[in-house]
User: Fold this.
Amino acid sequence: MTPARLTTGFPFGLWEAAVPVGVEKPLIVWPRTFPVGPVPPVCGERQVEGNVSRTKVGSSGDMLGVRPYRRGDSPRRIHWGQSARHDRLIVCELASNARPVIQLVLDADPRVHAGASFEWAIRVVASFAKGWLEDGAQVGVAWAGHDVAPASGQAQILRILDALAALTGGDVPLPDVLACPRCRGFRDGLQVIVTTDRAHAPGCGACAAESQRWVILATGGPPRHGPPPWLALDAVENIPALLRGGWREAQHGS
Assistant:
């Protein structure tokens, strides 16, 4: 049996408490997760086929409503009862069975973190990944020197939580992480970047509005320059509530 110590700086990282433990075999401790809001809307065609019915017009999902016939519509979608009532062809509009694709980018650079912000950034990414995967999205994660390609299902939840549990940080600035092939080449969906108010964020709000969302943890650092936050996590005690619903308000300005 290997002697070991279990150490924590929770919740504020001002001091650490430790206790000796006996470890007979490796044990993976996952980050704590919290309930999150619904999957963010993915603009344009940034989705892949799946079995998640979205409120977007498609050709194979549930019925959304009806509209007048347009040239090229399939005869199979004609609603004959409504057509007879209005004396013109009426067709059914169906929902799109599409699966949103999301890449979560974690800023693991220790120079932008203070207190317990690094641990909270990991919890935020873990919460989004678990919640949105359970809602049916395809989710991947990336940080300095590591990435998990977007996928769906329970196995992806375990894969991401295992990877986050082993994360120790990386001395790579956020702009370099976003410029690497795995992040720069991500074109399939929405990119959600989790960082702090100490990070140097590249780009501008207009450039990030369509395909990126920025989640900013407050550390009391100097004023931040870069895209506006989609979700601002201003205090540790507010994070669980903000993860559940804070982005609903923020999304209107993104």
